[in-house]
Design goal:
Elements (H helix, E strand, L loop, with lengths): L2 H15 L5 H19 L5 H11 L2
Helix pairs in contact: 2-3
């Protein structure tokens, strides 16, 4: 990674630290993360399944 790339990455990280997500955004990100990791291992997993299971768990 070049110095310029490192500086750009550090800038973006600092900018991201200042973002306050809404509760809906947090839920959407959690579902997206769960889907991405689950579907990678099992192609039968869908976004709908992730959402339904999260709702069952109260997440």
């Amino acid at each position: 990674m070049t110095r310029q790339d490192q500086e750009a990455l550090e800038f973006l990280i600092e900018k991201a630290k200042k973002i306050n997500m809404t509760a809906d955004q947090v839920v959407a990100q959690r579902h997206s993360f769960a889907y991405g990791n689950s579907a990678f291992e099992n192609s039968a997993i869908t976004r709908k399944i992730v959402k339904e299971e999260a709702e069952k768990l109260g997440l």
